[in-house]
Amino acid sequence: MNKVMKLMLIALAMVAFTAGTTLAKTELVIVSWGGAYTASQQKAYHEPYMKLHPDIQIINDDSAGSGAAKLRAQIEAGNVTWDLLDALAADAIALCDEGLVEEINPDTMLAPAPDGTPASKDFGDLLISPCFIPEIVYSTTFGYRKDKFKTPPTTIADVFDLKKFPGKRALEKKPVGNLEWALIADGVDVAKVYDVLGTPEGVDRAFKKLGTIKDSVIWWSKGAQPPQLLADGEVTIASAYNGRLFNAIAKEKQPIAMLWDYQLFDLDGWVVPKAAPHKKEILEYLKFATDTQRLADQAKYISYGPARKSSAPLVGKHAELGIDMKPHMPTAPENSKHVIVKNHLWWADHEVELTERFNAWLAE
Amino acid sequence: MTTPNITQEVLTTADGVPLKTSLNHALRRRKIRSLLLVAPLFFFILLTFLIPITDMLLRSVDNKIVPTLLHRTIPLLAGWDETGQDLPDEPVFHAMVEDIKEGAAAKTILRLGRRLNFERAGMSSLFRKTSRRVKRLGQVDSYREAMLKIDRQWGDIKTWRLIKRESGTMTLSHFLSAVDRQRNDDGTIGLKPKYKRIYIKLFGRTMALSLLITALTVLLGYPIAYLLATLPTKTGNLLIILVLLPFWTSLLVRTSAWIALLQKEGVINDLLVALGIIADNHRLTMIHNQIGTVVAMTHILLPFMVLPLYSVMKTIPPSYVRAARSLGATRFTAFIQIYLPNSVPGIGAGGILVFILAIGYYITPELVGGTSGTFISNMIAYHIQGSLNWGLGAALGTLLLLLVLALYILYDKLVGIDNMKLG
Q1: Which of A280, A310, B17, B219 fits a disulfide with A292 by CB distance 3.0 to 4.6 angstroms?
Q2: What is the C-alpha separation between B329 and B340, in angstroms, rounded?
Q3: Is residue B301 part of a domain?
Q4: Same structural domain for residues A116 and A21?
Q5: Mean residue pLDDT across chain B
């Protein structure tokens, strides 16, 4: 009897001890996009960080898709449970303007490049908002079915040419990107795109050009749709996030090829919520996760370009497929001969107005 | 002394309390007890439903941000004649500089820019640029000159008219937007330009398609429910599982399954081409349009119609129809005059359930609706999650709620709400 009691007591003590140690771990809630993207962050940032800091436990939350709205609700309710949010540049600007996220000083709060270049220089003009630390450069670009055309499409104008390149198109159900492409396909110089779009005639012109293919377009709203539409043969050319196309081509071996002409550069990165529960710990994590090596590591798992200049030479092979990732980066020289750099501040002004018009135009 | 004095005498209980009082006490106790039993649910609904909904509805008119952040400028603007052609006077410009300086220091001014940008494109960057530049602005002779130098939009009378128009703590502008209206420059309310009108059309489409979907679920669900209710219990229960099975499958999976079936290179088109019914280059377009939305949503919402119908039909005694038949009614007459009226409460319950769920759907229309099959809820979702214009989202939501309430009252008048049964 006594022995049994003793054993039970020891067991109890052990349970209490393990419970105590798990409780002592600080849990950081990091919100991102889920799927392959969160997986790449888990491998490149979270796992090495937790190895270095055994007292930190990182919890992934996959609700970045509605992150801005949810964060605003949390802050208004005075109950912030997120420590870090992965956001698109446009949302980051909006959140910063609304005062819902913290300002970050890159030079004092982020790691410099290995050669000592301060972070503000290393990120350069990608630091588009005082609250936003970019992780990746991604692009919305085109993929086409290799088996459907004798001569492959090579320019953005080919996307709008239904005679030479028959078949349906898939485009994102947003004015962003589509209006720029329409103008460039219509002969506007890329340097003047936003000036032209700023005039009523320019907007009319863009919608008119889009109207030439409107009846042949399937509009997508979730990133997974366009590779699927291409794979099913529903469309012959589709705009999509380059990482999704890479997956369809390199991993799933679909008969799809990339058309990089005038890809639209955009950014994705971190914002720190106001009143984040573990401010001190998360800033420490942020310094680690956005250093040169970590950003380069992420490109091993997903084909998005690192946001730091100093990371580019460190990009290596894909961790599972063993392919050299450099030629698949949107930032690779041969892919980025013609690019549109999304003008975020211009869109911050015009997105509401043009989305309204775009939706009305779709519903016509 | 022949009349008995009973009426004068007060009836009392054994311990001398008047009977009436005692009865009142007992009734009151019972009332309190029942109130206490209901109280937890009431507070739960109040806290988790009524208060949040009211809060959301109030956002549709809330405009406190403008008078709060421009607390120096707004009172001065009251004295400015916005119908004239002159810009406000120097003190207004001075007040605006001070307000923006204060807002820039508190990092709140860009919120104001975003709020006003919902009314007019360009206000966001106007405040962004101005707030950056006024910080460095020292003593100047003319604040008006200084602001015009920062951005010439400050010299545009429309900027000031907009600020004065939106200077109240409440605004109607979200509701105006929600019905495709806007304020013209002269302050009158008019339609938005044609290329921007969308919400009225979407409200109409949401209502029409939801009614169509409800009608289709009745048409498809009625025979199924009838079959289930009339079969022996054992077989009936087995078949009920078949009705419930899709119910337990994820909404996204069911929607994607419809895409695989209906798309141009999909199963149905392949089958039709293989059978030679249609030519390969004339494949049918059945998805990414209204057909897609109607088909997918009818399937997804069908269980919500079958289940109430089934539970009501279960309660209709078979002897009714037998009695009608024995009195000489044909099968058809017996069904129309006896069975159908008895099953109306189920149709009512299922109809309301399906209709209310249908008007709020947005993921399915988003994925299969293309451009002609999207609903007003897709726009509400966009404004809540995308543009973060919660004011307009709330206004659209309020209108949708009012529309549903109106339809509910209409239903009550036509069919009677008491005539609805879930089982």
Answers
A1: A310
A2: 14
A3: yes
A4: yes
A5: 90
* Residue B187 structure tokens: 């302050």
Report ipTM (2 d.p.): 0.83
Instruction: Please report how the helices B109-117 and A89-97 are oriented relative to each other, as an axis angle in degrees rounded to 10.
Output: 120
Q: Do B122 and A72 touch (CB under 8 A)?
A: no
Given an 8 Å threshold on Cβ–Cβ distance, is A234 in contact with B367?
A: no
Q: Is B10 inside any structural domain?
A: no
Assess contact for A131 and A103: CB atoms under 8 A: yes
* Distance to chain A for B42, nearest Cα, Å: 22
Domain that holds residue B144: 65-171
Residue in B with minimal Cα distance to A91:
B386
Q: pLDDT per residue over B171-185, tens digit each?
A: 999 999 999 999 887
Q: What is the CATH number of the domain that holds A164?
A: 3.40.190.10
Residue B383 lies in a domain: yes
- Interface A–B counts its CB contacts (< 8 A) at 89
pLDDT, tens digit (0-9, with 9 covering 90-100), for B227-267: 999 999 899 888 888 888 888 888 889 999 999 999 988 99
For an interface test with B, give the residue of A74, A75, A359, A361 to mutate (most B CBs within 10 A). Answer: A359
Half-sphere exposure (Cβ direction) of B99: Cα atoms closer than 13 Å: 24
Each residue's pLDDT tens digit, A159-211? 999 999 999 999 999 999 999 999 999 999 999 999 999 999 999 999 999 99
User: Is B125 in CB contact (< 8 Å) with chain A?
Assistant: yes
Write out the residue range of the structural domain in which residue A151 sits.
Answer: 138-266+336-363
Whether residues A221 and A349 fall in one domain: yes
- Tell me the nearest-neighbour CA distance from B264 into chain A, angstroms: 6
- Which pLDDT value is given to residue B137? 83
- Comparing C-alpha atoms, which of A260, A268, A251 is closest to residue A305? A268
Residue B270 lies in a domain: yes
Output the pLDDT for position B1.
45
Q: What's the pLDDT score for residue A287?
A: 96
Residue B32 has pLDDT above 90, yes or no: yes
Distances (CA, A) of A37 to A30, A289, A315, A318: 13, 15, 17, 14
Residue B324 CA to chain centroid, in angstroms? 45
Domain shared by A198 and A109, yes or no? no
Does the CB of B123 have a partner CB in chain A at under 8 Å?
Answer: yes
Higher pLDDT, A6 or A326: A326
Which candidate in B135, B203, B388 is best for mutational testing of the A interface (most A CBs within 10 A)?
Answer: B388
For residues B110 and B140, give the distance between their C-alpha atoms in angstroms, rounded to a whole number: 24
Contact residues, chain A, for B128 at CB < 8 Å? 97, 345
Q: How far is A30 from chain B (nearest CA, A)?
A: 19
Q: Of A65, A103, A349, which is closest to B121 when you measure between CB atoms?
A: A349
On whether both B214 and B69 belong to a single domain, the answer is: no
pLDDT tens for B33-48 read 999 999 999 999 999 9
Q: Minimal Cα–Cα distance from B104 to chain A, Å?
A: 11
Q: Are residues A99 and B372, on separate chains, in Cβ contact within 8 Å?
A: no
Count of structural domains within chain A: 2
B114:A362 CB<8 A? no
